[in-house]
């Protein structure tokens, strides 16, 4: 059986070769297209020693090029276009401005927005990719849905609502901005079978539903909980809580930016996210996070992801360094049996720790600790003596006990976490158990790393 790409082999090497052919066919046109952008991309090509699109003769040639864009360069490009042309969409805007019909944005920690532009064709392809994800999440045309992601400019906002409309799944777009009371009331009025919400919003709805609408969320008839924007669903305890409270299947998705699209399957356990856009996007062009040399793409390959959209018209990602460390899985999914590429987000390139040559990401340590719920609270800190990435062993890990866990069990718990980490990460940290409540909470993304002194 072939998947949505029409590739009908189950041999990993043949599958990758077919993907490479598909990518290279589209890439040749895209390389020529962005080379036409004299203000930005052509300059990047020249810096890399490429004088003509014809100099890039293969996918391997392409993969050896350095990154051409990242978050910082993106923002600089936007500032320069504002100065030079009076619009903020970047010198790397490759389409005429009047062909840009849709704009989304994210505002990171700096408060400066990063814009994502869509021509009509870009939006149509985006709708195709999101439709694949809606279908994978069991949503059918004609289904009622309720959208409660942030609407204001986010890629998961109006962009998603329009994709749901194009798919025919009647979104009621209350948005996260509507607030919990309004979201619950509109679920009551419109009876959606699928709810689009972050894991933390979905958890708040569980707590507030009895007081606000006089019933548990389980009574609302929601079959699909479609999550994005936060990692929560990958954590077994969070996922189980949501599944049980709603009586729904829970999906974890990413997508929207430059034709990226991934979604987890709802089978028991978590098997990473299925890649849904191989034909429109090369999102896992992995490089070594330190040397930046391309890595062989195979099952288990882990590295920093370079992202290139294959036929994007307006300000595309083209060798964009995402900073995400991805781990690839190639083959049959142990959950749903689908054959193809799955990926896990392992961490951020700038978070990597190097303990005597063992590379480890804070998120991997968090996964280990989360495996000990409900004996731990889930709060932890990695305590370093000096700036990362280099860490002199042992790696000190402070882990908070769950409320009410007797102190007599702490030593055994610490030993078990150390052993599990050794088995999975080949790294034995030194674990200290702290009483419940010892680590400060914050509504901000809590920094997992503390540096002494
Ligand atoms: Zn699966």
How does this structure look, described?
Helices cover 31% and strands 25% of the residues. The protein has 453 residues and is α/β, with parallel strands linked by helices. Helix 8 (199-213) packs parallel to helix 9 (236-246). The longest helix has 24 residues, at 12-35. The model has no long low-confidence stretch (mean pLDDT 92). It binds zinc ion (ZN). Zinc ion is lined by residues 265, 267, 271, 274, 333, 335-336, 338.
Work out the helix count: 11
Shape: globular
Strand percentage: 15-25%
Number of strands: 20
- Rg for CA atoms: 23 Å
SSE diagram, text form:
Blueprint: H1 12-35, H2 41-47, H3 59-64, H4 71-85, E1 100-107, E2 113-119, H5 120-136, E3 145-147, H6 158-167, E4 171-173, H7 180-190, E5 194-196, H8 199-213, E6 224-227, H9 236-246, E7 249-255, E8 261-264, E9 273-275, E10 281-287, E11 302-309, E12 320-332, E13 339-348, E14 353-355, E15 358-360, H10 362-370, E16 376-384, E17 390-391, E18 396-401, H11 410-425, E19 430-434, E20 449-451
Parallel strand pairs: 3-4, 3-5, 5-6, 6-7, 14-17, 16-20, 18-19
Antiparallel strand pairs: 1-2, 7-8, 8-9, 9-13, 10-11, 11-12, 12-13, 14-15, 16-18
Helix pairs in contact: 5-6, 7-8, 8-9, 10-11
Bound molecules: zinc ion (ZN).
């Amino acid at each position: 059986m072939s998947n949505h790409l029409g590739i009908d082999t189950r041999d990993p090497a043949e599958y990758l070769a077919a993907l490479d052919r598909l990518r290279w066919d589209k890439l040749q046109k895209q390389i020529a297209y962005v080379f036409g952008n004299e203000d930005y991309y052509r300059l990047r090509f020249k810096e890399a020693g490429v004088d003509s699109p014809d100099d890039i003769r293969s996918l391997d040639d392409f993969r050896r090029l350095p990154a051409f864009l990242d978050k910082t360069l993106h923002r600089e490009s936007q500032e320069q276009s504002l100065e030079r042309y009076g619009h903020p969409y970047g010198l790397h805007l490759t389409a005429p401005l009047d062909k840009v019909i849709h704009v989304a944005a994210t505002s990171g920690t700096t408060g400066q927005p990063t814009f994502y532009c869509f021509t009509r064709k870009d939006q149509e392809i985006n709708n195709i990719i999101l439709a694949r994800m809606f279908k994978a999440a069991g949503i059918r045309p004609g289904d009622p849905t309720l959208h409660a992601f942030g609407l204001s400019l986010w890629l998961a906002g109006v962009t998603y609502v329009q994709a749901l409309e194009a798919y025919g799944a009647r979104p009621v777009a209350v948005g996260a901005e509507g607030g919990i009371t309004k979201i619950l009331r509109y679920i009551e009025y419109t009876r959606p079978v699928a709810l689009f919400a972050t894991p933390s919003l979905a958890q708040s709805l569980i707590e507030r539903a009895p007081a606000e609408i006089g019933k548990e969320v389980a009574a609302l008839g929601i079959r699909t909980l479609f999550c994005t924007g936060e990692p929560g669903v990958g954590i077994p305890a969070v996922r189980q809580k949501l599944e049980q409270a709603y009586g729904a299947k829970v999906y974890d998705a990413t997508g929207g930016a430059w034709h990226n699209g991934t979604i987890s399957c709802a089978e028991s356990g978590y098997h990473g996210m299925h890649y849904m856009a191989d034909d429109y996007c090369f999102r896992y062009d992995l490089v070594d996070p330190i040397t930046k040399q391309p890595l062989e793409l195979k099952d288990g390959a882990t590295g920093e992801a370079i992202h290139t959209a294959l036929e994007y018209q307006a300000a595309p990602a083209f060798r964009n360094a995402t900073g995400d460390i991805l781990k690839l899985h190639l083959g049959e999914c142990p959950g749903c049996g689908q054959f193809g590429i799955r990926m896990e987000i392992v961490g951020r390139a700038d978070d990597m720790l190097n303990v005597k040559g063992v590379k480890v990401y804070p998120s991997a340590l968090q996964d280990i600790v989360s495996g000990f719920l409900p004996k731990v609270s889930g709060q932890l800190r990695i305590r370093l003596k000096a700036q990362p990435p280099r860490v002199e062993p042992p790696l000190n890990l402070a882990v908070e006990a769950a409320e009410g866990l007797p102190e007599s069990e702490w030593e055994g718990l610490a030993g078990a976490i150390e052993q599990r980490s050794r088995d999975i990460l080949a790294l034995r940290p030194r674990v200290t158990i702290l009483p419940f409540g010892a680590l400060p909470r914050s509504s901000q993304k809590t920094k997992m790393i503390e540096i002494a002194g």
